[in-house]
Amino acid sequence: MVRGDPPLINWPAFRSVYATLGNVVSMGGGTANTTSLLRVMNERAVFAEIFRLGKVSRPELAQATGLSKPTISVALADLERARLVRPVGLRTGNAGRAALLYEIRPQAGWVLAVDIGRAYVRLALADLVGEIVARKDEPSRAESYDAVLAQLSDLADKLTTEAGLSPGDITLTVFGTPGIHDKETGVLRLAHNLPGWELPGAVERLADVTGSPYILENDVDLAAVGEGAYGLGEGVPHFVYVSVGTGIGMGVVIDGKLYRGSRGAAGEISYLPVGEGDPRADPGRGMFESVASADGVIAAAARLGMIAATAKDVFDAARAGDETALKVVSAEADHVAHALAGIVAVLDPELVVLGGGIGAQAADLLIGPVTERLPGLVALRPPRIEASTLGVDAVLLGALAFGLATARDLVFERAVAVTPPG
Question: In Å, how far are 149, 314, 411 from 269, measured between CA atoms?
C-alpha cells in the first residue's frame, strides 16, 4: 500500500477496531461539572464521530452525537482552529440547502509502525486517517542489537524524509517484536531470535529511533489486532491468531478485545507440552516450538533422511508427492492439531486464524488434516480454521491499527491543551 491507495482504516468499523485493542486509551466520559470540561467533552464526541463516519455534515453529527446544532457548530469551529478537522466541500443532490462537509485533517498526526522480525524489519508511516505515505522493508540485522537499532533509526529517518517530515512530527511509534516486555527491568523476555534484547534497558533505547512517544507490543498480539481490524477476524468477537513459522505464538481476542494476561504472556503456546521428548530439553524455545517451528520441520525431515535447507523446501516436496516430505507434513499437522485441541478446550474460539511462514503459507497442506483430527481430540465441535489473508503484513497492519487508535486521542489531548476556545 502506498500513497494514493484507499485509506487503510475502514472507519465505519473503527469502533470495533478500537475495542479489539482493549480500549488502551481512555475515550473520556463522566459527568461534566464546568463549562470548559463540557466543551472538551463535546469536542471529543464530535471528533470521534468524524473519525467513525468520514466526511460528515453538521446535521449528521447532531444526529450521531445527540448534541444540538449550535453546540456542533462551536465544537467544529474549535476543532478546525486546532487544525484537527477541515471542511471538504458540499454534499449536493438532496432536497434543500447543500450541507458543508467536514473530515479529519490527515496531517494532524502521524503513526510509524515497525515490525521487528528475525528475518525482516518492516516499517510503514501513515497519516492520521490511515493512509500509508511511505514504507520500507529490509532483511533484518537481528544478529546484533546495536545493528538492528541503527537499521531501524536509518529506515525511520528515510521514511520521514520521504514524507517531508522531521522525526519530531511523529505522533506515536508502535514496535512489534517477539517476546514479552518486562516493564520492571526494560528487557525483552522470550525473544530468543533477537540476541541482545534481553539486556537491561534494551527496550528503552527504542526511544532513540524517532524521539517520539512509543509503544512496544508482542508481534503476534499485533497480528491478531490486524486480523481483527482488516482480516478474517473483523466482526468475530472470539478468535485466536496462531503464528507458526520461525517461532510459534498466539494472539487471543475475547469479547472483541485483545487479551494479554496478567504479565502480558497470554498466548505463549510455544511452551505447550506437545511433541516428543522431555519438555525441559530446550527451555529456550519450548516443546511445541521445538517440534513444529521451521527448525523443527527441517529436523524432522533430517531424521527421515531428507536434507532440506528450509521448511519451505519440505512443503514444496510434499506438494510434489515426495513420500518422506508427506510424512513430515503429517507429523506437523498432528502437532498443530494437539496444540489447537488444548487451545479450543480452554478458550472455545469461534475462529482459528493460521499465520506465519508455515501456518499461512503451508495452510493448503495443514488445514485439511488438522480439521480432520480435531474432532477426535476435543469434546465440542471445533472452530473453523482458516489461513490469514494478511500475509507478512499482519503485524505491520496491527501496529498501524493500534497506533492510529492511540494517536487519535494523543493529538486531541495536545490540541486541547494548547488551543484556547474561540
Answer: 28, 23, 37
Q: Distance from first CA to last CA of the chain, Å, rounded?
A: 39
pLDDT at 34: 65
pTM of the predicted structure, to 2 decimals: 0.85
Neighbouring CB atoms inside 10 A of 396's CB total: 26
268 HSE (CA, 13 A, CB side): 22
Closest C-alpha among 37, 192, 226 to residue 118:
192
Where do the H-state alpha helices sit in 304-322?
311-319
DSSP secondary structure, 174-218, as one string: EEEESSEEETTTTEEET-TTSTTTTSTTTGGGGHHHHSS-EEEEE
3 state SS of 321? coil
Q: Grid cell 471529543 — which residue?
A: 44
283 close to 267: Cβ distance less than 8 angstroms: no
Q: Are 219 and 249 in contact (CB under 8 A)?
A: yes
Extract the C-alpha cell encoding 123: 516499517
For 392-405, the pLDDT digits (tens) are 999 999 999 999 98
Q: CA separation (Å) from 173 to 132, 147, 213, 254, 384?
A: 14, 19, 6, 26, 34
Residue 86's φ and ψ, nearest 5 degrees, are -150, 150
Q: Distance between CA atoms of 203 and 197, rounded to whole angstroms?
A: 7
In degrees and rounded to multiples of 5, residue 250 shows phi and psi of: -145, 135
